[in-house]
Each structure stands twice: as C-alpha cells, then as structure tokens.
Write a structure and sequence with these properties.
Elements (H helix, E strand, L loop, with lengths): L1 H18 L5 E7 L8 E5 L6 E2 L21 E7 L5 E6 L6 E6 L16 H15 E6 L2 E11 H21 L6 H4 L8 E7 L5 E2 L7 E2 L7 H5 L28 E4 L4 E5 L11 E6 L5 E4 L5 E3 L4 E12 L5 E7 L2 E8 L7 E8 L4 E10 L3 E12 L12 H8 L5 E4 L3 H4 L22 E2 L5 E2 L5 H11 L2 E6 L23 H18 L6 H8 L10 E4 L7 H17 L4 E5 L7 H12 L4 E8 L1 H6 L13 E9 L8 H16 L4 E6 L3 E3 L10 E3 L4 E3 L1 H10 L5 E3 L1 E7 L7 H4 L2 E7 L6 E7 L5 E4 L8 E6 L13 E2 L7 E3 L3 E6 L1
Parallel strand pairs: 9-39, 11-23, 23-26, 26-27, 27-28, 28-29, 29-30, 30-31, 32-33
Antiparallel strand pairs: 1-2, 1-8, 2-3, 4-5, 5-6, 7-8, 9-36, 10-35, 12-15, 13-14, 14-22, 15-21, 16-21, 17-20, 17-22, 18-19, 18-21, 24-25, 33-34, 35-37, 37-38, 38-43, 39-42, 40-41, 40-43
Helix pairs in contact: 1-3, 9-10, 9-11, 14-15
The chain binds alpha-L-arabinofuranose (AHR).
Length: about 800
C-alpha cells in the first residue's frame, strides 16, 4: 500500500510542476477556524488572495484533554527554527499549559508536549503578545482568520495537497465493504473460482507459538458483575459518587435497599474494618423483620443444589445483639438461608455455606437482624463454590471456559486504559490489588464505574495458570492516560520525578519479585506464598505503557522503567508501546524509541475497517526483521454501527493469516475488548457478550477460537493462484480477497491450513496433496450475519484432490 501512495505522490508532483504556471514561492498562513478541527493552511501569491490548502483538512490537531471534542486548539503559532524545522505552539483553553510540537515538512508532526507557565493569565499574555507581533488578518473562503504568515516554496503546497490526496485515496480503499460486493463483483455472479494453493514445506520458518492470547480489561463490567464470580454488588459500600459522575443513584448505598417498617441504612466511616475500606453500612432496625437487601449485579443467579459461601463483617452498635438471619429470595420465594451468630461490639467476620434449594435468576440477598438496634455491616460476600477450577474467590466457570476454548497462549491485564487510568490518582497500582480482599483498594475506573479489585493481580496470575497461558501484566509507564479528564490538567500527567517516581519504579520491580521470587528471601514473594502460591508464577513478560502519547513526560519515565527492569531482570521480555494507531506521531516516535533503545517488543493497537485489513495485507511484510518484535495488543475490525458480523470476523481471519506469515516478528496478538455485559457496555464490538446466565460469543470469537485452536510454531509459505473456471487470471481486486497460511505445531505434529475467502463466490481448492484424514472447520455466512457458528471439524470431502469452500468463509484444515 505504501508503495502505491509513494508512486502516486511522485507522479502528481511531476505533473503539477511540468504543466502548471506556478510561482516558485508563495505566502503561507496557518490558522484555526474551529478549535476541534486542528491546524489549517492557506497560501497566496500576493498576500491578499488566499486559497485554502487541502480544503482546510488538517495534518495536526490538539492531543490535549479527554477523548473527542475535549481536545481543542486555539491561536496556533508557527515559527521556523534554525535548521528549517517548523515549530507549532497553540493555546489549549483556560489552562496554565500550552502545546508545542515540531515538524520537518508541515505534514508529519512529533508528539505534543505541554509546557507549564506560572498561571493561565501568563499563557494568555504570551499568546496576546505573539498575536500582536506576528498575526495578520486574512480572508480565506470568505471568512476572516488571524494567523502567522510565512514564505514557502510552492512545491511545499503541492506536496501537502498530494499527501492529502493520497490519504483520501487510501481512505477510499479502506472503506471497501463486503456488503457492496453485489455491485463490485457483479461479473463473478454464477461463476466458480478456482484456487490453486501450494504449501512450500521445503521453506519452513520459525514463528511465535503465542500468536493468540487474551486481552482482559475491566471495561463493560468485565470484572465485577462479570468474570469475577462475586454475586453481591457494592459488597463493601465503597461505591463512590466520583466513580460515576453521571449516574444520579450511584453512591455508597448503591444496590442496597431496606425493607421493613422504619428501617434505615446509614453510611458511616468511623472505625472501619480496614483503612482501605473506609465506609460501611449501618442498619437501624426499629422493628424485627427489617432487612437489608442487595440486588446483586442485575439480580443474583442461583442454581439448585449448588453451594454458596456467605461471609460478612458485623458489629453491634446499639441495642441488644441478636443472630443475623441471611436469606436468599426471589420475589416471595426463599431459595436458601442461614443464620449467623450475634455480632459483638467489635468487628467480626462470620461465614456460612448456603445450599440453594431452587433455581433463581433474579434473587436478592437479605440480611435480617433478629433484634432491634443498629448493626454495622461490611464486606458482605456471596460466592459460588462452583467457580472455574473451583478456586476460592475465583471466576465464573462458564465464562472462563469460553476463554479456555480460545486456547490462549497468554493473558494481558489489567488493561487497556484501566492500566494507566484517568488521571495520576487513578493509575492501577498492582500492590493495591493483592492481599486479603478487605485490605485491597477499590477505585473508580476510567470507564466510569467502580472496580472492587477482588479480581486482582493474584487472581489474574492464577487464572493464567488455570488457562495454561503466560501472564502479561501491563503497568503504566509512570504516566496516566493521555485522554484523562482529570489530573495533570486533563492530560497525560507524569508521576513526579524524585521520590514518588523512584517508589513507582520499585513497585514495578517488586511485581517481578512477587511473581517469581523465593519466599524464603523475598518479602514480596512471601506475600504470594501467603496468598496460597508458594511456587513462582514464572513471569516472563511485562508490558510498560498502554498506547500512550509519546511526549517528553512519557519518554523520560518509560525509558527509566525499561532500564530498571532490564538491569535487574534481563530475562524478562519488556513490551513497550507505540501509541493508539498504526501510523501517526506516536506510532513513529514509539517505534523510533523501540529501535534506538532495543526494546524487546512493542504493543501496537488498531481498530480499523474491514477494508483496511483487505488493503494492508503486506503491513508486516515490510517490517524490519531485526527490530523489536510486535505484540498486536488491541485489534478488531470496526464497521459503522460497531457490530461483530461475518464481515468483521472474516477481515480478522484474513489478517490473522498475514500475522502468521509474519510470525517471525509478530509474537503475540489479542482481539480487544474481550468481554461485555449486556446493558453495561462502554465499547462495541467486544469478543464475548454475556449476562448473568448466558454467554453470547460473537462471530469474531468464532474466528479467534478457530485460530487459537490451530496455532503452530513453524510457518510453511503458502501461495494461492486464483483464476476463473476457464483458468483466466482474476483481477487484483478479486485476488486480494483471499488469504491463506499454513503452520505446523512441532509438539503435536499437526499442520493447519487457514483459508479466508472474502469473496461472494465459493472456491474450488486444488493443488494440495492432502491426506484422506484431513478435517475441515468452517465459519461462513452473509457479510451482515451476526449469528453464524463454526462447524464441528468434519472429514474433508475431496474429489480428485479438489474440495470446495463456501463464499464468505473462514476455514481451518487440519492434517
Ligand atoms: O479496548 C478498549 C480501549 O481501547 C482500551 O482500554 C484502550 O487501550 C484503547 O483505547
């Protein structure tokens, strides 16, 4: 793709200069018509008639502030530095920071930095002075603007126009949809296509055996109310108004109600069970029969005959203490109950096991004191014993099984943006997520709800072990999310250098010690052993940073962290970051740092259209084989409406074939996000949807599962020659809708051929000398289909060595 664009630009430039009567140089003005749209350019031969460049499309916008319209640019000032570098500065609004970036060509811009001044007024004054000294008023497209004026070669204007033109052509390719195929491929109608596939077994290449893994982030209620099997919502009364500013009913008493005459619930904070559990509930009972009820996460699902661990902390504040009756009830029907001993005037944890007598899908948990008075309650937990691998404080067995079916080779956690958080105070500190549950520090998350962190680092590592995959924790690079709405003035802030940052570096080193150290000699390893895991977790990877803005604040901390980890633990593979896109300033700068500092691996993210995958099949073919390895940490195909369909799934299947071909440099990949609870999604599409009772894997899941279950460690070059049934070659448009890849697993000796057919026609496959025992698994449907399932593996039906795969299908052939 890049080659085509380069040729086009060169051609356009050559034609322009040959044929048009243009000046050698022109005036350039930069201005900003709309703060959300970024920097605009216009040129003029005489400094009076101005024409906009690229129709006011922009090459650089503000990167400061929360996602989307929060990012604003005011009063852009362009200056030329010695050496010809352009420097752009602009105001951000009413902040004591302004933005600064540079560019060699006005097209490619470095990541922005945000220098501080002593006050907002000082920033205003600085830009007022620049305005007076440098800005001129110009008229572009009938509208008045103020901006700086420069003289530049006219060739520069042509270059900018051509780059935008090429980008527009690229965007047109990327907009290719399978849903338009009836017109695009009308000439193929009723034709059978022939595909000759050759597997070059004589030219094997070693590839990563960890190409499919899991990206776990607490988004869309993936953790509490999701994978984490706890059934009581807000069990510790720690939900806080600030977790979810837009939900009026959100707060310490969320999910709790009182029933019974005159009973009330108060929230108190004096003498809590632990300093990290600041709040608790006090139930005032005027009349016996009053009960405090928890509605769970959209109700509590209980299964007849199953056992549930109940526990709670209680303390009698006033009145005569009596036993606490705990009832599980759906409507008026009691499906389980127990009685706990009477609380004393000191916090005490009580436990019981309840065996449920009938299925319930919307039960509540009710605590009924048997005397009047005030009883303080905290950390009320109801946990199924039937968790995945029967772990205490474990995860939902059914959901985890769907994850296990992916055959993931690694699991990344805790994010995503949750890892670096919404502002400095919201960075995910792993130490706050281990130890006794009531000593952990819950907090609001960047997706605007509360995370209890009952599913914390210990549980993540344990789940990895239970899934048979490598843990890949991702820690913040000492900065918060660049899209933060709070902290650092609403921008990527850095943990202050000095004692605070030194402690943060130590925390990261302690994580490795906690995971791998010897409990006899290491304090942190001892904590792991005390939690129940004396053996090391054998951590091999650590991610530093999550699609950050690669500015100065980030770079300084990122490199220091990487250096600290590699100096102490040279065998740990460090995975850095290259920003949120497959191109642009952060991607370029992230890769520059990776190459310069020999970072083991970098994490790339892209959520792009199916057309992008079709037109970028060579994306990794061009990568430097000697540079850092790639972890494609977040990816998915997005279409308008953000649904998972056969179209998106096949695009990902096609890309996976290309990842396998490049498995010598692409080490890992994980579709994102992973989980989403119906009714609580912040992001679509996700790989697996669920509610309390059911799981709805998407068609994208089907493809990921097919790929996960057919991973290998050796790639066998695979070529496809496509032709019509009268053996005429097909057009490039048709050819690029097919991808195939073959891998061999040296452990099992099995070979897997994957074929993605993104055409509306079935394909007759020939040229392969497959054994009669070969099996095929197929996922197919119409592009809009959302319900399709892969077939069970069936013996491949061949006639004279030829077999057929359906239109719009992803196929794995195992032999
Ligand atoms: O996957 C959802 C979000 O997308 C992740 O939290 C973030 O890293 C990316 O922007």
């Amino acid at each position: 793709m890049k080659k085509i664009v380069f040729v086009l630009i060169s051609l356009f430039s050559a034609f322009d200069s040959m044929w048009s009567n243009v000046p050698d140089s022109v005036y350039l003005v930069v201005y900003n018509a709309n703060p959300s749209q970024g920097l605009m350019f216009a040129y003029s031969a005489d400094c009076s008639n101005w024409s906009s460049i690229c129709d006011e499309a922009s090459f650089v916008g503000s990167d400061y502030g929360p996602w989307g319209a929060g990012k604003k640019m005011y009063r852009p000032v362009l200056t030329r530095q010695s050496g010809g570098l352009w420097q752009l500065e602009f105001q951000l609004g009413r902040f004591n920071q302004y933005a600064r970036t540079t560019s060699p060509d006005l097209i490619h811009w470095k990541p922005q930095d945000y220098p501080f001044m002593e006050s907002r007024e000082a920033v205003d004054q600085r830009f007022d002075e620049i305005d007076k000294a440098l800005f001129k008023t110009v008229m572009v497209n009938g509208v008045e603007h103020r901006g700086c004026v420069y003289r530049i070669p006219y060739a520069q204007v042509e270059m900018m126009e051509n780059v935008k033109l090429a980008a527009a052509m690229r965007a047109q390719c990327d907009a290719e949809r399978l849903t338009d195929d009836h017109t695009r491929f009308s000439e193929l109608k009723d034709k059978t296509l022939q595909a000759q596939i050759k597997i070059h077994a004589d030219a094997p290449k070693n590839i990563s055996d960890k190409l499919i893994g899991i990206f776990f982030e607490d988004i869309n209620y993936s953790a509490d109310g999701g994978l984490y099997a706890e059934l009581v919502q807000n069990r510790d009364f720690e939900y806080n108004e600030t977790d979810r500013a837009r939900e009026p009913k959100w707060g310490h008493d969320y999910a709790w109600t009182v029933s019974g005459d005159g009973g009330t619930l108060r929230i108190e904070d004096a003498d809590p069970i632990h300093p990290n559990q600041k709040y608790y509930g006090v139930l005032d009972v005027q009349k016996v029969g009053t009960s405090l009820e928890n509605s769970g996460f959209d109700g509590i699902v209980l299964r007849k005959g199953e056992r549930y661990d109940l526990s709670l902390f209680a303390r009698q504040l006033t009145g005569k203490a009596g036993k606490l009756r705990v009832v599980l009830r759906e409507d008026e029907c009691i499906v389980g109950h127990t009685t706990l001993s009477a609380p004393t005037d000191k916090w005490k944890q009580s436990k019981a096991v309840i065996t449920v007598t009938a299925d319930a899908s919307h039960a509540c948990l009710c605590i009924e004191p048997t005397t009047t008075g005030s009883v303080a309650l905290d950390f009320v937990s109801l946990f199924p014993q039937n968790t995945f691998k029967h772990r205490k404080n474990g995860v939902r067995a059914d959901l985890a099984q769907v994850l296990a079916d992916l055959h993931p080779r690694f699991m990344r956690f805790p994010g995503g943006c949750v890892a670096h958080g919404n502002g400095l105070d919201n960075i995910y500190h792993w130490k706050e997520s281990i130890g006794p549950l009531w000593e952990r520090k819950g907090q609001g998350n960047i997706w605007h709800y509360h995370q209890s962190r009952g599913l914390g680092y210990y549980e993540f590592f344990q789940l990895c072990e239970d899934l048979g995959c490598e843990p890949l924790p991702v820690v913040a690079a000492g900065v918060c999310c660049q899209n933060s709405g709070v902290g650092g003035n609403g921008q990527q802030g850095g943990i202050p250098l000095g004692a605070a940052f030194d402690q943060y570096v130590q925390d990261v080193l302690d994580l490795i010690e906690w995971a791998n150290g010897d409990p006899k000699t290491s304090v942190w390893a001892r904590k792991r052993a005390e939690a129940g895991h004396p053996k090391p977790f054998n951590l091999k990877y650590i991610g530093i940073g999550n699609e950050d803005l690669i500015g100065d604040v980030f770079t300084e901390r990122y490199l220091a962290l990487i250096k600290a980890v590699k100096s102490k633990y040279p065998d740990i593979t460090v995975c850095g970051t290259t920003g949120p896109f497959f191109e642009g300033s952060d991607y370029e700068e992230g890769w520059r740092l990776a190459k310069q500092h020999h970072i083991d691996m970098v994490d790339e993210h892209y959520y792009v259209s199916p057309g992008w995958y079709i037109h970028h099949q060579d994306f990794y073919d061009q990568y430097d084989r000697k540079a850092s390895k790639v972890y494609l940490g977040e990816w998915a195909a997005h279409i308008p409406g953000r649904r998972s369909t056969i179209e998106t799934a096949l695009a990902c299947g096609m890309h996976f074939c290309n990842l396998e071909r490049n498995g010598d440099i692409v080490s890992m990949s994980s579709y994102a996000p992973l989980l989403a609870k119906h009714g609580h999604t912040q992001w679509n599409p996700d790989l697996i949807y669920f509610d309390n009772e059911h799981i709805y894997p998407t068609v994208d899941y089907e493809v990921q599962r097919m790929c996960g279950q057919s991973q290998g460690d050796t790639y066998l070059p695979t070529s496809i020659f496509l032709s019509t049934d009268d053996w005429k070659p097909v057009s490039a448009d048709v050819q690029r809708r097919i991808a195939a890849s073959t891998v061999r697993d040296s452990q099992t000796g099995k070979t897997y051929l994957k074929i993605a057919n993104l055409l509306p026609q079935p394909l007759n496959i020939s040229g392969l000398n497959l054994p009669a025992t070969a099996h095929i698994t197929t996922l197919s449907g119409t592009p809009e289909d959302r319900e399709a399932h892969a077939t069970a593996p069936t013996q491949l039906q061949m006639t004279n060595g030829v077999f057929q795969i359906p239109a719009y299908s992803f196929n794995v052939i195992e032999f």
